[in-house]
Amino acid sequence: MPLLDLDKITAGLSKTWSGFLRDWDRSLRAGNYPETTRYNYLLAAAQLGRYLGEFSPDPEADDAAEDPAGVSRAHIEAFQAWMIETRSASTALNKHKALQQFFKWLMLDEGEIDRSPMERVRQPKMPQKLIPVIRGEETTKVLGTCKGREFAQLRDEAIIRLYCNTGARLSEVGNLLLDDVDMNTESVHFHGKGSKDRRVRFGPRTARAVSRYLRARAKHKAADLPGLWLAERGIRPLAPNGIKIMLKRRGLEAGLVKLHAHRWRHTFAHEWKRAGGDTGDLMLLLGWTSQEMPRRYGASAAAERAQETHQRIGVGDHV
C-alpha cells in the first residue's frame, strides 16, 4: 500500500482545499519530490485546513476553512501554537516548513494570493535534545540477540551491522534493493534524501553478515522480490517500519530502552570526529549538504571529545 493516499489525506476538507492539495501534489510529482516529502507536505496543509474548520476559536476561520486563500498570519500562528500544545515543538516546526512551501506555491505558481501568510511567522524554537551515542558494548549486546542460523537472526544481524558500520538513515537501509549491494567491492548504494544517491563501503564483519544473509535469502520463497530485506514468513518485504519495530524489540532484549537506527548515526559522527576525521568526508559518507548537520550529530558526545582533547594537549599542565 502506498504511503500517500490523497483521499485519506483530504477527507473532511472542503472541495476547494481538496482541489488545491491535489493540484499541489501534481506539481510536487512533476518536481520529482519523494513520496515521503509529498506526504509530509500535504498532511501539514490538510491538518491546517481541518484545524480551521474544527478547532480554531476564531469565528472568522470559517472562510479560511473553505479556501486556503483566506488563511491569515493569525490563523497560522494559532495553528502552530495548537501543534506545540497537542504534539510537540519539533512537529510544529515540521508543519511550519511544509506550510511555507504550500503558500509559496499558492502565491508564485497559482497566483491565488498576493502575499504568503507565513511572512513574519516565527519558527518554533526547538529545545536542544541530546541523543546519546550507543556504546560499543551496547551494540555487542544487541548483536548478541541475533546469534544463530535462523533466517531472522541472520537478517537482523546484517541490518544492525549496516546501521552501525555506515551511519545510514533508517529509510536508507530499510529501502535497499538487492541490486544495491555489491559484494565484490563490499559496498552499498544508498538512495538518500532529495534523490541524493551515494555509495558507501562497509567493513569485513558487516560483509560477512550480509553475505550470510544473502545465502539465506536466496533460499527464501520471496527471493524474487526486488527489496533486499524480506519478512520472515510469507512473500513480502520487510519495510522500514518493520525494521524500526525489530530494533526496538532487539534493544529491549539487550536491556536498552528506545533503541533506534539514528543512535548509530549519531555514534558514527561522534566516532568519526573523535578519530580526527575530515568534516567534508563525513558529510559525503552520511549524505549531508549542510554544515549544520555535522555540528548537530554527535553533539551529545562533544563534551567527551573536548575532555579527551584537553587531556591529550594538557593545557596549563606543563608549567
UniProtKB/TrEMBL annotation:
InterPro entries: CB, DNA_brk_join_enz, Integrase-like_cat_sf, Integrase_catalytic, Integrase_recombinase_N, Integrase_SAM-like_N, Tyrosine_recombinase_XerCD
Domain of life: Bacteria
Pfam short name (any one): Phage_integrase
Gene3D superfamilies named among the record's database cross-references: 1.10.150.130, Intergrase catalytic core
Chain ranges of the Tyr recombinase domain: 129-311
SUPFAM superfamilies registered for this protein in UniProt: DNA breaking-rejoining enzymes (SSF56349)
DNA-binding is among the record's keywords: yes
Keyword DNA-binding belongs to the record: yes
Domain Core-binding (CB), chain residue ranges per copy: 15-107
Alphabetically ordered keywords of this record: DNA integration, DNA recombination, DNA-binding
Family classification: Belongs to the 'phage' integrase family.
PANTHER family referenced in this protein's UniProt entry, alphabetically: INTEGRASE_RECOMBINASE PROTEIN MJ0367-RELATED, PHAGE INTEGRASE-RELATED
The protein, known as: Tyrosine-type recombinase/integrase
Species of origin: Streptomyces hokutonensis
